[in-house]
Amino acid sequence: MDVRRFLRAGTMSVAAAAVLLSGCATTDLPDVNQTGFEVYDDEQRLFNRTAEFNRQIDASGVLYTDPDLERYLTQVTEFMLPVGFEADHLEIQVKIIDDALVNAYAMPDGRIYITTAMLGMMDNEAQLAIVLGHELTHILERHQLLARRSAASNAAFFGSINLIVPFSSIGHLAAVTGFSQQFESQADEHGFEAFLRREYSPGQAVLLFQRIEKFIIKEGIRTPQFFSSHPRIRNRVTHFESLISALPAGRPRGTLMNRDRFLDATREVRLAAIRSWIRKGMFTTALERVEIYASRYSNDARGYWLKGEIFRKRITTPEEPQRRVKDRADFGKALTMYDDALALDPGLPEAWRGKGQVLLKVGDSDGAAAALQRYATLNPGAPDLAYYTEWTDAR
Known about the structure:
This protein is mostly helical.
């Protein structure tokens, strides 16, 4: 990781980086809940910088804000803590970043960031717990401080610590590639132990990472992020498979999944993930996940509206931009989905807008005008309203 990217983003000054990179070289540290634990001076500087970073993220506009969901995610994280855990210097909390890429990040002060896409990939609480348990292990075992002390250079440090950086030019988030393989393996193994202690179903860990692997392959993701490297995610899958196969024959295997609790708690954020995938052109994933959503909430018009958006926007020849071809049959599917949505909720303005856009494409200008006028009536403050009003008035 090139530290210059941090500096260009305006997130970290050279002076702040120097503070983080100063200090002693001790790497033999007790966990935060072990006898002999103390907060070292260089660790306190790391906490101070992290607090500053968290304030920047809070003010950046990239967070998906849902206090009830944050409480639920934090409760699941706390459920994964060791029995009798005490660490006054840590505040365990989970924040959500609105992003189409699957990711999660641990900060040394106890905050965990997880993306809407990561939550959108999950089907139950067991899958959530394996991710939160992994990130929690980074915090409890002080991996950020260990990585910082063992770094031979600034570049090595920023390549090993698990920070996120807002790109001011595009308002997007990118992640450093993660910790060393040693720390990642420890986080998997020790997080999995906590997962087993809470009697979650072990096979769900494999299922989640298999799904993430398919997501990476199907959507052709190339961004250097925590879960984006195909070889790395394949290693995660095989690692969890080996951890499960190594369980003693007599050890009980949990069955806890809390599917209904998870799905109801994450209902809105899973819709947000689907919308973000549509915006990014990740139509295969968006359609797969919206089908699951619509099957559970068959009376929610938004599921059908989002399916309409997918059929309206997706293409059938993705090789080169100039050769992209729209399958006109998709327009018919989109109209059906919009009509299904409007049958459930005639007051859903986005469905009227989508229907009007499709009718324009297929040459039904009268139908398009009627649909877009209905959209304007239902959503008079829409930022794109002037465009559609100008078109309908010009007819």
